[in-house]
Design goal:
With 216 residues, this protein is α/β, with parallel strands linked by helices. It contains seven helices and six strands, in the order βαβαααβαβαββα. The longest helix is centred in the C-terminal third of the chain and has 40 residues, at 176-215. The radius of gyration is 24 Å and the shape is elongated.
């Protein structure tokens, strides 16, 4: 399938169906059969923090997470998240889960026009932080794939949905609420088609039995 620019794509499916694996394929972490092409740069959240980095202030390793990120942009994003920039100067392992999430999101969003791959971004965010993230992603000028179990969050952010079902992706051209309605409509249609096929088979069986009787 193809993903258009400026889409905000909700990527959903039951646990273990391959959502995170798919994002890692886009990042080139695994070998695969087929082809993936993109004309833009991918960035993934949450960042992987090495054990030795957890002992360091964020400011000392944010360049490793996102080469070329500028400090002033990170600070601006933190302010939007209602967070003080001083958390960048404290050892990472002393920050609360919410502070860690906000610091890493600020780094992620410090550069524009990227293709963002975001996996469960609302974990550990408070209501204000989640609302800010919803607004940011809605206005973000770039493509986003979001994996989330937060249905309300997806409803506010996603304008397209892909669901992984039985090893393939099913596309829905709307937000999460549209997905729910459309999925039910598709199920109803399939059920109707199935019932019609069963009725035809039943009628065919009845006809065959009558023909057997005529043959006797």
């Amino acid at each position: 399938f193809s993903i258009d620019t400026n889409w905000k794509l909700g990527f959903i499916g039951r646990n273990g169906k391959g959502k995170t694996t798919f994002l890692n394929l886009l990042l080139g972490k695994y070998s695969f059969v087929g082809s993936i092409s993109a004309s833009t740069k991918f960035d993934y959240f949450p960042y992987e923090i090495a054990d030795h980095q957890k002992e360091m202030p964020v400011v000392d390793f944010m360049e490793d997470l996102k080469p070329g990120c500028e400090m002033w942009r990170v600070v601006c994003e933190l302010e939007e998240l209602s967070e003080n920039a001083e958390i960048l100067y404290r050892p990472f392992n002393t920050l609360s889960p919410g502070e860690r999430t906000k610091a890493l999101l600020a780094i992620l969003f410090s550069e524009e026009n990227e293709f963002l791959l975001i996996d469960e971004p609302t974990n550990h965010l408070d209501i204000a932080g989640t609302e800010w993230l919803e607004e940011f992603l809605s206005s973000f000028k770039g493509t986003v794939i979001v994996i989330s179990h937060d249905r309300y969050f997806l409803d506010q952010v996603a304008d397209r949905v892909i669901e992984i079902v039985d090893g393939h992706g099913e596309f829905y051209s709307g937000n999460y609420s549209f997905y729910i309605e459309e999925k039910q409509a598709r199920f109803n249609l399939q059920l109707k088609q199935y019932e019609q096929e069963q009725a035809k088979l039943k009628q065919l069986g009845y006809t065959v039995e009558r023909m057997k009787g005529w043959g006797i």
